[in-house]
Amino acid sequence: MLPFHKAVEGDFSAVNQLIIDELHSDVGLVENIGHYLVEAGGKRLRPLLVLLTANALNYNPSGDQRKHLELAAIIEFIHTATLLHDDVVDTSDMRRGRLTANAKWGNAPSVLVGDFLYSRAFQMMVRIGQMDIMNILADTTNTISEGEVQQLINAKNPEVGEEAYFSVIYKKTAALFEAACETAAVLAGASDEQRKALKGYGYHLGLAFQLVDDALDYEGDAEELGKNVGDDLNEGKPTLPLIHAMANGTVEQKALIAEAIRQGDASKLNEVVAIVRETGALAYTADSAQQQVDKAIECLACLEESSYATAMKELAEFAIQRRY
């Protein structure tokens, strides 16, 4: 357990149990795939954001209605559903150091269990019974779907620029970070100012995480990452390290990377990594991530000092320091 988990250790354990409970289905395959995904672990950052934000705002659950736990589980189900669909679209075979669900069970079960998780999340939203939260999460799931399609369109296109890239990583990643914080703020009865600031915290933190992910694909360790290094190149994804390298490299370097993107060819990964380093693209991506982290931390000024606010700052700092 990472240090920033410890501030909400009890709630976090309760959410993990709730996730298992809510995976119940009369269809055995649904439970099998669901439990396989849960057992894979992961940092569970999105539900963690719900718990930290709610507690930082002094959320006080009434009776047995611990709605922040339900909300955290909802966010995790939405995230897991997107991963299931992502892995099918990207034909990925490794995630978190294990076979993906589609590699183990096939594409059709993975897509359908992803649909189950989406629908279970919306069943749980109804139980919370707050229209503002349902509205935010309905809009967010729609935004994530748009991001998936946009990323598919951008694949194997070396002409994609920074603006289009940032649009995709907002929709695919930052939107759910943003929603986790904003919905927790709504649940806790935050002021409009706090709600806006915490939404901003999630937005900037989500961008930072994705920027670091995209850099690690060219400098990370496969064992630490739990996935294959070079996957983005193999899928023809024009991420920021490649976009910057093409903008600042020689004609020959730009041509090599452009062709690798067009072909979705990771066989030249070593040459691409050398160009990415030589052009300062990794440093540029790291600087961009640091700027987002700095902005995220600034947004925390809306909170009173507490162990939860401190953990949120530590989480933002972890975003830039991590190697996995």
What's the gist of this structure?
The chain is mostly helical and 324 residues long. It is built from 16 helices and two strands.
Amino-to-carboxy terminus distance? 14 Å
- Gross morphology is globular
Spans with pLDDT under 50 lasting ≥5 residues? none
Major sheet: size, sense and barrel closure?
2 strands, antiparallel
Question: What does this protein structure show overall?
Answer:
- With 324 residues, the chain is mostly helical.
- The protein has one domain (3-321): Farnesyl Diphosphate Synthase.
- It is 73% helix and 1% strand.
- It is built from 16 helices and 2 strands.
- The protein has a two-stranded antiparallel ribbon with strand order 1-2.
- Strand 1 and strand 2 (98-99) form a beta hairpin.
- Helix 1 (9-22) crosses helix 4 (67-89), helix 3 crosses helix 8 and helix 4 (67-89) runs antiparallel to helix 6.
- The model has no long low-confidence stretch (mean pLDDT 92).
